[in-house]
Write the structure tokens for this entry.
Amino acid sequence: MSKIASIEISQHRLPLDPPFKASWDGRPRRQFDATIVRVRDDEGREGIGSGDLMKGFEGHEDLFIGEDPRQLERHYEVLSHINFHYGRCWPMDLALWDLSGKITGEPAWRLLGGRSDRVRLYASSGVLRDPGAMAAQAESYVDEGFPAMKVRFSSSSGGRGTWRDDVRALEAIRARVGDRLDLMVDCNQGWRMPWDTTLSWTFKDALMVARELERLGIYWMEEPLHRSDRKGMRRLSDATSLRIAGGEMTRELYEFRDIIEDRAFDVIQPDVALVGGITGCRRLAFQAREAGVMMTPHSWTNGIGVLANAHLTAGVGDAPWLEYPYDNPEWSELRRDFPMAAPLRHAGGWLELGDAAGLGVVLDEDRLKATRIS
């Protein structure tokens, strides 16, 4: 029987020149950090995970060493306790799924239920471009075969201006591509970076924006209110034909349980690298389906996180699309996936997962060596 022999965690940093000006962050990002988790068994196999920084995991390795890596529910419980006391250590769960797949010789999507070996993608933009540039970006997504695109609104006054300026960008996209793309909008009101003290919209603010988005045929409205205002989210969902989406930074699975039971969101967006891992989010997929709530994961970490969310979505879910962070040139596949030997490549808006055991991650060891930080 396979036993966990060692756990290694390393941090890596890729300089970004030109910087990435993320819509949710008023400070240009001049570097991109990645945490790599390696779990090895006593027969030399290695599982790989990535995502959050794994703060608080150090000193708890003994809770896993010597255990069967396939005891995924047991390991989930331990990680949930670490998550309560310290940080988000869910990349460990991803590595355990990768290792379990390598032990059994099966891809994770098949172990998770085997509904499909591929997922449809929506292009998730991250940069606040002017209306003309946003329209050109949307047209490029159409040309590449994407069926849908997510457009970001300004998180504070440091963006395009007011939400009305953001709506003008949407209008330019609609004028250029018509109904060839489904459009989603991330309002960036659910949370803030530590230095951003801008208040979130009120319910009335969000309702005014919703009326404009209805006019433009937007598929969903994401994070339109502060994350704590679940009653407001439910009111907004009842007041508009738009689907209300959110939950990307939610920390606990029980919060999603309450969100689903209250129908606070029409679409939940957990990220396996940030909440619950694959093991926990698999539970959410079933809960959401029974309640008639859509689940389609958030996936803004790196290519390893994208793959992990894709395996869950393909194996268990029935989401119309999965988020694919992709906004050239500032957020290219090469930048996003720098720890990997080759970046993920979509094929006409699809991500093919294939039959590689586990998550199918192959690391670029030379690049990881060159980018490693203390």
User: Anything to note?
Assistant: Residues 41 and 157 are 50 Å apart (CA to CA).
